[in-house]
Amino acid sequence: MYGLSTLFTRSAFKSILCPGLLGGLISMCDGVKAAEDVQFNTDILDLNDRSNFDLSQFSRSGFILPGAYPMAIQVNTETFSEQMVAFYPPEDDPKGSQACLSPQLVEQLGLKKEFVNQLVWWKEGECLATGSLPGMEVTGDLSSAALRISLPQAYLEYSAPNWDPPSRWDEGVSGLLLDYNLTGQSIHQRHDSTRNTLTGNGTVGANAGAWRFRADWQGRIENDDTSSAQKLEWSRFYAYRAVPSLQARLMVGENYLYSDLFDSFRYTGVSLNSDDNQLPPNLRGYAPEVVGVANTNAKVIISQQGRVIYETLVAAGPFRIQDLNDAVSGTLDVRVEEQDGSVSTFKVESASIPFLTRPGTVRYKIASGRPSDMHDGGHGSTFATGEFSWGISNGWSLYGGAITDNNYKALTLGAGRDLLGFGAVSLDVTRARAVLDHDTLSGASYRLSYSKRFEEYDSQVTFAGYRFSEKNYMSMSEYLDANQYGDPVGGSKALYTATFNKQFRDAGVTAYLNYTNQSWWDRPDNERWSFSLARYFNLGSVKNMSLSLNLFRNQQRDLRSGQESSTGMYLSVSFPLGKSGTLSSSVNRALDKYSYSTRFSDRINERNSYQLSASDNSVSGYLNHTGDLADVDWSASAQEKGHTSLSVSARGGGTVTAQGGALHRSSSTGGTRLMVDTTGVPDVPVRGYGNPTRSNTFGKAVIADVNSFNRTAASVDLENLPANVEATQSVTQLTLTEGAIGYRTLEVISGEKAMIELRLPDGSAPPFGATVKNEKQQNTGIVNDGGSVYLSGIRRGETMTVSWGGRERCTLVMPETLPEDGLVTTLSQTCHLPASEKSLSAPTPLTDKRIDTEKKTS
């Protein structure tokens, strides 16, 4: 008895297999072309009933019956977007079958414009004539549910690994979303009050076509034994969409000026910016990072002009935040709230790398609107700004821009040069003129930027920048503040920024240095630098030990709070303990005090990790849990003199579409996500980035934090599937635009498994090779010799259909009760015939051992 289930379908049915059966059958075919009928030698079939079988679906090499099939599209070596593909008989071969490449599918191929005009169509313009592109080959394969398209590379637009051209981008489906980031803290001091706080920020949004509508919120609730306060505010309302034809992003509403030439400020209006995210990854820009040291388990809040853009809990010790959006520019305010109640603040200048633009390419940013304040609304006159960067040649780039309103004008012009082995450098000059109530200020600002990767020394200057401004130079944001507060503010003189890292591989040492110095014409300098040095080594039988040193200094002056300065040091040594644990001991100097601590960190499993620490005056614990519904962090500490604290944070969201909804974890708010439909089957593990999630009661799972404009893959985690679930399609891929809600279905069959012995009403068996489908039209089995079939996805009382000869022949009703051991027991079930098939029994006996199954079907 032979089974064809794993040979001719994509379902992993547990049939009794005949290895090499297909090869044995085809090897008996003498010189048959793909478009011709295939004749099978039935002598090799060890069947009890040689007159009762149906191989019509295999009668032609590669033949696919006319119809529509879900298939993954493979273009050369790349796979993307599973979709329905129709197969029709060609006009010159009524018995044949050919894949129909619809205009919508052809658009996704990424053909260059000059070749699109050469295309020829058939079936009244519904299908592409593949002969119109010499060298193009199209092959359908039902066994892997794939349509393979081979195209000469000369026809295709530029592409890169994990990146697709705009013709393949997916705008997603319409839907609603609510993302949140909440942190609750309770700090208690013996013989004093208990202070409880709840802070949070997030995004409410809606998607409609290519448009993304968003509203950002932030809030704080605080109370102690004597007072309470609460505050909830909407930080901005805005809408945006990608404009692929311009490689740009269009935004309307409340926004911040993201400029490479001018400082940032808040406004209400419209902007159209070249979007580096729409470029291949190797052509994209720079995102700032925040480095610091937490004395205890702490909350880090990063904001810009009052708007919180990032908030997280960090464990005691050095922290490095590198996942900020690369659209962030200008000065970032960093606030570190320790669990002992102390607070430290510093600023990070997100300087940019030198201007270099690909030859022949122009990048631009334009915006217009009215400056606004998050709390007081609009102020100032309507402004307009524009900037550009033009790649003149392989070595030179020219850039510049202007910004103006009724009383302020600034013009910038600069050039960037690729110095090849010496790195890259750019220099620009900005001239500004501001008219205030009682004065007119005019001055210039000069900026020099440099970047170099020293391959031979295994080191890199990420960016080094210097900016000098004349005393009467006023930036746009300084001009706005002067108008609002009455007196000139600002007076920036010089800004130095540098980031350097170096690896000494032979010694196992890595060094990192960051330095910022801001000087003013009318106040003391602000300076911040941090230096880290780490060495990895082995000591006897102890492997992978590390020694790290962090030095930092922060000195800044705020107009309201006065001078603040701090210098610190953090020295730590660690070594592995157990399978995944790490034990470390450290000494920390901050605020002119020394503290000592020992920490142990480990992973419980792929979803849970923890850290325990003890110091000379406290003990604390930190636990991180990656859940299906949210990422959750807990931290607790107890210090001398009865000071205790408890903190918990949660990051997650909810997404709702017409197809369904789900709660999910999320690190960023309002971002791109993918909803996976497991065809209504719950508790299916789905893997995207990082740890897998599981489909909810309605068979929906959401993968958040998807990289926009990058190819994204989602798959069923086959190793952790429930025993009664099978995945007939386990992988899907797509490329989503920014903020999109992607939607894909992964075919999953849920139900019991059992060996069924099928019988027609007259007692005969359906033919060998007949197929069985459930009510969702999913293949659940192929009939073997004697009518036996191993079925998966059996649901009590469900009706399945049995097909052979190219059409449905009878229906099969599953029993209400199934034996406990479905793998062993064989059930005898009758296949009921429809009225049109009442005279049908087993197929007419065949007398010739060499049969033409195509003629038999017809």
UniProtKB/TrEMBL annotation:
InterPro entries given in the database record: Fimb_usher (IPR000015), Fimbrial_membr_usher_CS (IPR018030), FimD_plug_dom (IPR042186), PapC-like_C (IPR025949), PapC-like_C_sf (IPR043142), PapC_N (IPR025885), PapC_N_sf (IPR037224)
Main localization, broad class: membrane
Compositionally biased residues, Basic and acidic residues: 847-858
Transmembrane segments: none
Locations listed in the record: Cell outer membrane
Domain PapC N-terminal per the UniProt entry, residue ranges: 39-183
Signal sequence extent: none
UniProt GO BP: pilus assembly
UniProt GO MF annotations: fimbrial usher porin activity
Cellular compartments per GO CC: cell outer membrane
Record carries keyword Signal: yes
Domain spans labelled PapC-like C-terminal: 755-812
Region (Disordered): 645-676, 834-858
Keyword DNA damage belongs to the record: no
Membrane disposition: Multi-pass membrane protein
Keyword field: Cell outer membrane, Fimbrium biogenesis, Membrane, Signal, Transmembrane, Transmembrane beta strand, Transport
Family: Belongs to the fimbrial export usher family.
Protein name: Outer membrane usher protein
Organism: Pseudomonas helleri
